[in-house]
Each structure stands twice: as structure tokens, then as C-alpha cells.
Amino acid sequence: MEQAARLDRLFRLYSGKVTALARQLADRAVDADDIAANAWLVAARWIDTLQADDEQAMGWLVTITRHAVRDFYKPRRTQEVPRDWADAVSAFALPVAPAAEDVALADAAPELPEYLAALVDRLPESQRIVVRLRADGLTWPAIDSRLGTQTWGRWQRALASLRMAVAA
């Protein structure tokens, strides 16, 4: 709580100066507010390391703001590699992938045994649909999305009914 109060005091004292410094150091003036906000986030994270009095904290904030500017413009590493697709020399053939229908048909879920399919067919429609979709391999979010409602309760009731029918 004490650190939050101290950060509040520092913000009230120096927010204008930090923003002005960010505006002065930024490559583009529109980036200054974002840089200043990032500087205050870092200050909030490290406020417990500040040993200077509040009246002498501007040096600490200047260092943080300079680092915020540097970090704001630091190139981000990414796995993507730019490629000129219009250039025939750099274009390359894409790997051939099977059609989605072929993949779906090849991985079709096994059929329910006849005695179990007959028991499932006797369930109420709302439960039967959930059991069939689950048997087809759909995930719970996919089933919920397809039916537009939470289906876990239907599944539980269907299992209870099936257990009683199998036991009988």
C-alpha cells in the first residue's frame, strides 16, 4: 500500500515531465504517450528499488523513460520471413495437403455396437444428439457451439440412463 501511495505521489509530481521527455526522445510524437505509459509501468514494477527521495526521483524516471523509448522501438523478433511472392525466382511450390473431406472420412469414428446404438436411440432427442456428437469425436466446446447451449448436463443424464439400461 505504501508503494502505491509513493507511485501516486511520483506520478502527480513528474507525469508531465516524463511525457515531455518521451515526446522529446520519441521518433514520432504520437508514440510519446505510449512510451510514457510504458515507463510508468516499469516504475510501478520497480518502485520498491527507488532509494532517492521523491523530490530527487526524476533522475530515476529519466533512466526508465530512456529505456522505455529504446524498448518501444526495438525490433521484435518473429519467426516470419518476408517473401516476395510476385518474384518467380523466389516463389516455391507449396506442399500438397489432402483435402479436408478426405482427412475427415479417413478418421471417421467407429460405429457404436448395435446393442448400444439401440439404447442410445431410446434416449430423449436432446441427450441422443449430445451422445452421437461426442461419439463422432467432437470436443465439448464444439458440441456446445453447435447446439448453442451447455451440454454437459445432458451428457451426464444420458450416461445415467445408459448405465441403468445396460445394468437391466
What's the helix and strand layout?
Layout: H1 2-25, H2 32-46, H3 58-73, H4 100-106, H5 114-121, H6 125-135, H7 140-147, H8 152-167
Helix pairs in contact: 1-2, 1-3, 2-3, 6-8
Radius of gyration: 31 Å
The poorly predicted ranges are none
Number of helices: 8
SSE run: HHHHHHHH
Span between termini: 65 Å
Description:
The protein is an all-alpha fold. Helices cover 62% and strands 0% of the residues. The chain has helices spanning 2-25, 32-46, 58-73, 100-106, 114-121, 125-135, 140-147, 152-167. α1 runs antiparallel to α2 (32-46), α2 crosses α3 (58-73) and α6 (125-135) packs across α8 (152-167). It starts with a helix and ends with a helix. The model has no long low-confidence stretch (mean pLDDT 84).
Quick structural gist:
The protein is an all-alpha fold.
Overview features:
8 helices, mainly alpha, 168 residues
